[in-house]
Amino acid sequence: MDSPKIEDETAQQQQQQNTKTCSNMEKVSKIPDLVLPRMKKMDPDASPLLGIDEVFKKRWQIQGLIGKGGYGEIYLASDTKRGEEVAIKVEPKIRRGKLAKRMILEQKALMKMQGKPHVPRLYASGYTENLNFIIMQLLSINIGEIRKSSPCRKLSKSTTGRILHQTIDALHDMHQFGYIHRDVKPANMCFGIGETNRHTLILLDFGLIRRYKKENGEFRSLRSKAGFRGTHRYVSVRVHSKLEQSSTDDIISLLYTGYELMIGELPWKSLERGDEIKKLKQAMQNNEEKVGNNKNYFENSQLIGFAKLVFSLDPTIDPPYSKLQDELKILIGNKKMDDPYDWEDDFKEAIEENDINDNSSK
Ligand SMILES: Nc1ncnc2c1ncn2[C@@H]1O[C@H](COP(=O)(O)OP(=O)(O)OP(=O)(O)O)[C@@H](O)[C@H]1O
């Protein structure tokens, strides 16, 4: 494995090759096809940042686009030196006339956190004349996409509980490095696709991280107002109010993530305006009844214990990570982290739980 390095080279010559291997993806027979990354249609009018069959930096042959965020594009490529598939994240160096700093920060944090189990392995990173890039471990489709592949559009309690449990470990590691993530959501979580890491959750996208602790571990002093950072659907009420984010806000986003995975949708799914979303989040937090149906938001949901603890957290101190994980035991039951997850079992458990809930609400 190449050790991560920051490269300083200009764009390299492109080479045409037609072979399209999916070598390491094919070798791991236990991974169901549905979670393997899929090529997205490339729209030539949208000026993709890399071209199919282009050999990036003389080494990585681009096979297709597998992800697109608000900032970057993620490509599947084969490493012509090692014969392995990798993911390449690229973003234009200049955005709206300014030097884009997101990926530089992401490269730095990823490099620092290498070796931690819930962080993607970094193979190389740097920049070309026009792009910043990161070459990293290829992962599954994201958990939001996995949920949508479930016939009932939900994940089971035990799978959701284990996703939340592993993400708490991932956030604990990140917070210990002094960073908060600020964009915890299903689209930023994937699983490994190798024999040994197919049950390991990987937290992605460090583009919005912020250093919230000083080198000595003390909290940095809080700004009285902070710009909005994150995704409206998943940020905490505090973030809607433009308050400085803390490690507890990552955990609140994780609660909303768990709710969406297990219940199938968030109550504010169809709302777009931040103030309207904030109002429903406040109602959920105050355990008010949902408008028009005399039921509160956590009715029938064993997320209630976890939610109560999450909503009681003090943003001036780090969350009690193990206590939070204890509250997930009721969801996880006797399942081990290495037992099959919903997608390895045709979503049977999720469908059964969904049928029981449907029958009990009739
Ligand atoms: N290493 C990887 N392997 C497989 N798929 C990946 C990988 N990295 C990212 N993806 C896919 O690409 C999507 C977008 O990635 P990412 O969130 O890093 O981009 P972004 O431009 O920073 O997005 P955002 O606008 O949410 O900040 C992810 O949701 C995931 O599905």
Automatic annotation (TrEMBL):
Residues binding ATP: K89
Gene Ontology molecular function: ATP binding; protein serine/threonine kinase activity
Keywords of the record: ATP-binding, Kinase, Nucleotide-binding, Serine/threonine-protein kinase, Transferase
Domain Protein kinase residues, every copy: 60-331
Region annotated Disordered, chain positions: 1-26
EC number: 2.7.11.1
The UniProt record lists the keyword Transmembrane helix: no
Protein family per UniProt: Belongs to the protein kinase superfamily.
Protein name (record): non-specific serine/threonine protein kinase
Lineage, top ranks: Eukaryota, Metazoa, Ecdysozoa, Nematoda, Chromadorea
